Amino acid sequence: MTAPIVTARSRRSAALLRRAWRAGRGLGDDLARARRGLPSSPVTYRHARRLHVRTAGVTSEVLRAALRAVPGPDRVSARRMRAGLSSADRAALAELQRVGLARIDPVLDADAVRRLREFATTAPGVVRHADGSMTRGTYADRPADAILVQIPGDFAWAQGPIQSLMASRRLHQLVGALYGLGAVVHTSQLNWSCVPSSHSPTESSPRFARTWHTDFDGLGAIRVHINLTDVDDGAAPMEYLPGSHRLGALRGRGFRRVDLGEADDAVARRFGRVEPRRLTGPAGTTYLSNPRGLHRAQRPTETDRLFLTLPIQAGSFAGAVTRRRSVPAVDAAFADLAAVPGGPLRLFDVVDAAGRVPTARLVGP
Ligand SMILES: O=C(O)CCC(=O)C(=O)O
């Protein structure tokens, strides 16, 4: 009997097959979990993201259509959701579909914006310096070479105004109307962009968000962006390239790493003539963007900017947030909605001051 010939190539093929089989099985489990409204695994997120970038969004469209076709807690009637919107929000929705970006009437009032600004001034954060190094500190005590102060989510989403934003039915309805899948709120980002002092060294490497990039927040999503300080051209408004969110717009070799911010040349070639939109406006100004489109941060030249971003995903499949977070609820609407199984706040577990899940949640339905 002759011994089987095992070459390096056949071993590699077998390993590849094994990996594909494991990934396939994970995908199957995650699709079944999606039908119960549960988040999927980091592996599914990675695969779905890579396929999304490779196919310029086609795989996400197909998977989303498939999820809408099967009954499950995430399926909602886009028409009913749309009917519940104000005429201003319906107009914003049309703009979001056409351009990828729309300004909407503020969700937070002036008092909430002021409270968030006060909180973010002294909250412990991560300070990024012009030379690329990072230290801990607050915005109030930042050193002269600080270019960014990031307030960690755990502190930020325990704030009443952020919780009321996360619990906003209006935003959930906008997502449902756009995608026909229920809203799943993700974790927020709260950052100060700072004007470095003229004595600080020039920035060693521009941070990732300063290059044109896209974000993969699942098969469909909106990002809510709120200026928490007045933002004009000197205060680093985020920029968005109109139309770049459309299916297939980022097709081609040059866009293979667009989710990592490595497509600047390809962007210049394909979109060189498109005028970017800037997210300027007084404190409280609120925009919605489709994260599938190209956007980038800027360097502030005159004034610091405090900026809040909240991604809201359509359905729970292939999201970036794959585990639940514990949060003490300070906003009543947030607490009520977080207790709804399979609801928009399903990624958050309300805990009491000592960090325990209240007994009612453990024994409830
Ligand atoms: O800070 C900015 O202006 C950009 C933020 C961004 O890239 C994002 O929200 O995805």
Describe this structure in a few short sentences.
The protein is of the alpha+beta class.
Q: How would you characterize the overall build of this protein?
A:
With 365 residues, the chain is α+β, with helices and mostly antiparallel strands. The protein has one domain (17-363): Sandwich (Jelly Rolls), CATH 2.60.120. Helices cover 35% and strands 17% of the residues. β13, α11 and β14 form a beta-alpha-beta unit. It is globular. Bound molecules: 2-oxoglutaric acid.
Structure keywords:
single chain; 365 residues; alpha+beta; Jelly Rolls; three-stranded antiparallel β-sheet; 35% helix; globular; disordered N terminus; binds 2-oxoglutaric acid
Q: What portion of residues is helical? A: 25-40%
Count of beta strands: 14
Are any ligands bound, and if so which? 2-oxoglutaric acid
CATH architecture: Sandwich
Rg: 22 Å
Residue fraction in strands: 15-25%
Main sheet makeup: 9 strands, antiparallel
Q: Tell me the name of the CATH homologous superfamily.
A: q2cbj1_9rhob like domain
The CATH class, by name, is: Mainly Beta
Q: Which stretches are poorly predicted, pLDDT < 50 over at least 5 residues?
A: 1-5, 359-365
Count up the domains.
1
Shape call: globular
Number of DSSP helical runs: 12
The computed structural class is: alpha+beta
What is the H-and-E element order? Answer: HHHHHEHEEEHHHEEEEHEEEEEHEH
**What is the CATH topology?**
Jelly Rolls
